[in-house]
Amino acid sequence: MNQPMPSAASAATPQSTLAAILDSQRPASLLVISLNPIPQLEDWCQHHGATLHSISESDPESRLHGLPRVDMAIVADQLEYMTREAGARLIGLLRNLYTERVVVLYQEKLAPERLRWSRNAFLAMGLRREAVFRQQEREMALYSYELARYNFTRAWNNSRFWANPENWGKYWW
Questions:
Q1: 143 SS3 class
Q2: DSSP letter at 115?
Q3: CATH number, residue 41
Q4: Does residue 61 contact residue 19 with C-beta atoms inside 8 Å?
Q5: Residue 122 CB neighbours (<10 A)
Q6: Which structural domain, as residue segments, surrounds residue 54?
Q7: Please, are residues 62 and 82 in contact by the beta-carbon 8 Å criterion?
Q8: pLDDT digit string (tens) for the chain, length 173 residues
Q9: 168 occurs within a structural domain
Q10: Residue 1 forms part of a structural domain
């Protein structure tokens, strides 16, 4: 299950990319945070027997408390209407407490100028930009976070590169 999320380079739409992510990850439980319903996700959960938790409020943080841990969280049509602080807190809560996988769909032009997230703001939260979808004047970016892919193993972090390799793993400072 530690497969990377599929690249959206070959996918033409956000819907087909979400379907590919769900089909490759096969989450047994899904949390969807969106001000507008996403029927495709509801259909996928019904068809695959996955548990769906849905939050469609302007302040989703208050509804998170009491929810169980889920296999994946999808945030769509939500961050565009939240302050950057509230959005960062939401993403932080999701990835630190509620799930190991987060997918965010974001349309920068929908957000008022003062609420807009830059690409670096998403990267600072540990998310990767997986795809950008363009249709006429509209643009939507898909970002993802997966704990298993977040911190890669470094080749130098082993006993071979230590000054005293015989002490590797013996002492914790």
A1: strand
A2: G
A3: 3.40.50.150
A4: no
A5: 22
A6: 14-152
A7: no
A8: 444 444 444 446 888 899 999 999 999 999 999 999 888 899 999 999 999 999 999 889 989 988 999 999 999 999 999 988 999 999 999 999 999 999 999 998 888 888 888 899 999 999 999 999 988 888 899 999 998 777 667 777 666 766 777 777 777 65
A9: no
A10: no
Question: What is the amino acid identity at position 147?
Answer: L
159 in a domain, yes or no?
no
Provide the token pair at 108: 């920068």
- Total structural domains in the chain? 1
What are the CA-CA distances from residue 69 to residues 29, 113, 140 (Å)? 8, 34, 28
- Tell me which DSSP letter residue 158 carries: S
Which is nearest to 133 in space by CA: 110, 113, 111, 105? 105
- Six token digits for residue 129: 């930009």
Query: Is 171 a domain residue?
Result: no
